[in-house]
Specification:
The chain is of the alpha+beta class and 60 residues long. 35% of the residues lie in helices and 35% in strands. It is built from one helix and two strands, in the order αββ. A two-stranded antiparallel ribbon has the order 1-2. A hairpin with a 2-residue loop joins β1 and β2.
Length: 60
């Protein structure tokens, strides 16, 4: 069985995912933020294809 977790493509996407998570957390954990934050991964055959981020703010 072959694992795709350590491929060059996945390594690049994992680094990108970590940066996106850090940005979203910094934005969402600020005082005055009300809403939701999400990250969605699209994976095919063990390889990350796409990363989507979504931040929704509630206006108060």
């Amino acid at each position: 069985m072959t694992t795709h977790a350590n491929t060059a493509g996945n390594a690049k996407k994992v680094a990108q995912l970590q940066a996106i998570m850090a940005e979203i957390l910094a934005e969402a954990l600020r005082r005055g933020f009300f809403g939701t934050a999400a990250v969605e991964l699209s994976v095919q055959d063990g390889t990350i294809q796409n990363i989507k981020r979504k931040v929704e703010r509630v206006e108060k």
